[in-house]
Amino acid sequence: MALKWIVAAALACLLALATTATAATCGTAQYLSGATCKPCDYGKVASADGTTCVTCDPGFVKFPDSNGVANAECRAATEVCGSAQYAKNGRCSPCDYGKVQNGDGTGCEACPAGEVKVPDTNGARDAVCTPATEACGTAQYAKNGRCSPCDYGRIRNDAGDGCVVCGPGTVKTPDTNGARDATCELAASRCSANQIAMNGRCSSCASGRTPNADRTACVQA
């Protein structure tokens, strides 16, 4: 009888050992809590000893980063994330407006001068820096990686990194605030009979004066 009890107890111990988790038996995205393997949070993988979870190093993200996954690894954000995302707390996080992923995936950077982020939507996974001369309107220029409106009387310059005043005798048309597209047109066709082109806008002559032939100045009537 005693022998049977000893055998039964031994089998129970062996069974317990077989079903008790150890750090070595947990997945790479799990940690040992008591006798149980528990999943690491998003952006984290198991520590070296398997007793806790750690966030992936800067520039790296957990992959795959799904809830409850048993195994995962930290991989470079430049490989896993989109071109408009970077590694933040071990996860792919969207860059701000006007910015794309930097060279090592640790952050975001504004597009170079004269270029804008396309598409520049909130939460976009992928985007590229595109010349403002292709992506923006003729009354817009590249500012901090985004299409920004030119001031009154101005249109985009040839480089796309700024705005210029319309030439002599011409005015911005339309000259509305925030217009996407505009052209410089002759003041003679856009302004009233007593107006000239000044700083790219229609400007009235003073009393007793009248526009000259090319609408660049007011002369004595």
Low-pLDDT runs of 5+ residues are 5-19
Query: Which H/E pattern describes the elements?
Result: HEEEEEEHEEEEEEHEEEEEEHEEEE
3D shape:
rod-shaped
Number of strands: 22
Average predicted local confidence, pLDDT: 91
**Helix count?**
4
Rg value: 33 Å
Helix- and strand-based class?
Answer: mainly beta
Strand order, sheet with most strands? 1-2
Strand content: 35-45%
Describe the overall structure.
It contains four helices and 22 strands. It has a domain at 27-92. The chain is mainly β. A hairpin with a 6-residue loop joins β21 and β22 (218-220). Helix content is 14%, strand content 36%. The strands form eleven sheets. Strands 1-2 form a two-stranded antiparallel ribbon.
Write the layout of secondary structure elements.
Elements: H1 2-19, E1 30-33, E2 36-39, E3 44-46, E4 53-55, E5 60-63, E6 73-76, H2 77-80, E7 85-88, E8 91-94, E9 99-101, E10 108-110, E11 115-118, E12 128-131, H3 132-135, E13 140-143, E14 146-149, E15 154-156, E16 163-165, E17 170-173, E18 183-186, H4 187-190, E19 195-198, E20 201-204, E21 209-211, E22 218-220
Antiparallel strand pairs: 1-2, 3-4, 5-6, 7-8, 9-10, 11-12, 13-14, 15-16, 17-18, 19-20, 21-22
